Amino acid sequence: MGSDLSTKILYKEECFLIQGAIFEVYRELGCGFTEGVYQGALTKEFELREIPYKSQSEMTIEYKGFVLNQVFRPDFLCFGKIILELKATKDTCEEHKAQLLNYLKVSKLRLGLLVNFGHYPRATVERVIL
């Protein structure tokens, strides 16, 4: 049976590596810290695992062909193609997913991971595909 594009997981290997780092941070720190703490720890874990990333890098927003003065800063851009948006709340909501979808639209990237370190008993990772 041939490879069917509709069943192929987008950036499977890269996501596996990213998720390993996310779950290691949660294993070490657990639940209850702020997003900033998890972002700092994840930065270190990405470095330890040699996962290419940019943290809080500015990305421009276009509107009808014009570049706006406003920029957005995703928590992480990994492998130059996967946006990570971190949360530290009991549960994520539709607004968090909408935020990530907007980031994907304006960046013209296809995959984002909505990561919630505030969920107990484990961190959650939701794939958001545009």
Give the strand line-up of the largest sheet. Answer: 1-4-5-6-7
N-to-C span: 27 Å
- Structural shape: globular
For this structure, the quaternary state is single chain
Helicity range: 25-40%
Give keywords:
130 residues, alpha+beta, Trna Endonuclease, Chain: A, domain 1, 3 helices, globular
Any chance you could write out the topology, listing elements then pairs?
Layout lengths: L11 H18 L5 H14 L4 E3 L3 E5 L2 E7 L3 E3 L3 E6 L6 H14 L3 E6 L7 E6 L1
Parallel strand pairs: 5-6
Antiparallel strand pairs: 1-4, 2-3, 4-5, 6-7
Brief account:
The protein is α+β, with helices and mostly antiparallel strands and about 130 residues long. It has helices at about 10-30, 35-50, 95-105; strands at about 55, 60-65, 65-70, 75-80, 80-85, 110-115, 125-130. α1 (about 10-30) packs across α2.
Question: What does this protein look like?
Answer:
By secondary structure, this protein is of the alpha+beta class. It has one domain (about 10-130): Trna Endonuclease, Chain: A, domain 1 (3-Layer(aba) Sandwich). The protein is built from 3 helices and 7 strands, in the order H-H-E-E-E-E-E-H-E-E. A hairpin with a 7-residue loop joins strand 6 and strand 7 (about 125-130). The radius of gyration is 15 Å and the shape is globular.
